[in-house]
Amino acid sequence: MDERRAAMLREMGIRLLPAWALPAQEQAAIDAEAAEAPALRAEVPAVVEAPIAVPPARSLGDRPAGVPTLDWPELEAAVAGCRACGLCESRRNTVFGVGPRQADWMVIGEAPGENEDLRGEPFVGQAGKLLDNMLRALGLDRGRNVYIANVLKCRPPGNRNPEPQEVAQCEPFLRRQVELVKPRMILAMGRFAVQSLLQTQEPVGRLRGRVHDYHGVPLVVTYHPAYLLRNLPDKAKAWADLCLAATTLDAG
Questions:
Q1: So what's the pLDDT on residue 134?
Q2: Where exactly are the structural domains of the chain?
Q3: Residue 198 and residue 241: Cα distance in Å, rounded?
Q4: What catalytic reaction does the record list (predicted)?
């Protein structure tokens, strides 16, 4: 599709699927379809996933008290020194967050992986590159206008799934980050992030396609970039989620 036609479609309010959202072999077919019918919309079917339980947090243990009142330096120091669960024994670095500390957009993922644990930064490696491409398609950049964090601040050994109690222990840190960032839109990526933030056992596929609320902040659900790297057709669904979030923010 030539740039002139793409610009005309953008002026009509139509968000085209960016290159990252399409397996390469499907690009030509989508462009041909767009030439005949300019409205490109991704379907949002339900995806069945196994739920997780989200229990209340146990006693604070070695997690610092007073998290709801901490400022940025205090909060970062509290995360770095947290020993409230066993993940502190195997981590190399805590992964606090990255981006401007007041931003309209906040992206929340699940837990650090090996690369994140080594660098102390969320969403690096191949999943991070895909996330950066996703954000750029909306005019966003992790260093400029979006803050990125994870539900867990420490890597689960072997990149295993987070345990419910680990999620519960980290929740006060994340909630305080949201309060300090003051985002106008939260993009929750992946099952554990979604179910922790929304306090639900519903699978991602049933929560997509509508706007939720997290303590007064609009929240849109989508797939984790690592999942999208393994399930290429669902990239188009993720683009639909990003478009929903952008449209909701624009309307606000």
A1: 95
A2: 3-36, 67-251
A3: 17
A4: Hydrolyzes single-stranded DNA or mismatched double-stranded DNA and polynucleotides, releasing free uracil
